[in-house]
C-alpha cells in the first residue's frame, strides 16, 4: 500500500444561518486516502479551548469530527437524516442533520464543497445552515 504524504493546506469555511454569516480561516494538513481525504486543523480559540477538527471528505458525504475540549460528530449526506452529537464539560447534546443539498468538486481533497442542512438540537429545529468550504494548497 502506498501512503500519500500529508500536505499543508489553507482552509476557508463560510457558514450562514438566517442573517448571520461567519468566516473561519485555518491552516491544516491534508491526508489523501483512496477516494476520500482527511483534513485536520486546530480550531481558532473561540471559547472552545483546544479543539482539533477532522474533515473526512468522501464523494457523497462529509463528516466533521471534533476532538479536544469540545467533542462532536456530524455527517452530511444529500437527502438524508443523520444523528450526531455535541459534547462539552457541561454535557452532551444530540444533533440531527437533515442535509438538503451537498455539492463538491474535490481532487485528492483540494477544491471546494458546499452543503445546506436543517439542524435539530435535542429534537428542536435550530435553523437552516449553509456551509461553503474551500481547500487550497499552501
Please characterize this protein's 3D structure.
It holds the Pfam family DUF1934. With 138 residues, the chain is an all-beta fold. The protein has one domain (9-137): Lipocalin, CATH 2.40.128.20. Helices cover 0% and strands 75% of the residues. The chain has no helices and ten strands. A ten-stranded antiparallel barrel has the order 1-2-3-4-5-6-7-8-9-10. Strand 2 and strand 3 (36-42) form a beta hairpin. The two termini are 26 Å apart.
How would you sum up the global shape? globular
Q: Biggest β-sheet: count, sense, barrel?
A: 10 strands, antiparallel, barrel
Distance between the termini: 26 Å
The overall strand count is 10
Average pLDDT, to the nearest integer?
A: 92
Note the topology.
Elements: E1 7-17, E2 20-33, E3 36-42, E4 51-57, E5 62-68, E6 71-76, E7 81-88, E8 91-107, E9 110-121, E10 124-137
Antiparallel strand pairs: 1-2, 1-10, 2-3, 3-4, 4-5, 5-6, 6-7, 7-8, 8-9, 9-10
Q: How would you concisely characterize the structure shown here?
A:
This protein is 0% helix and 75% strand. The protein is mainly β. The protein starts with 6 loop residues before the first strand and ends with a strand.
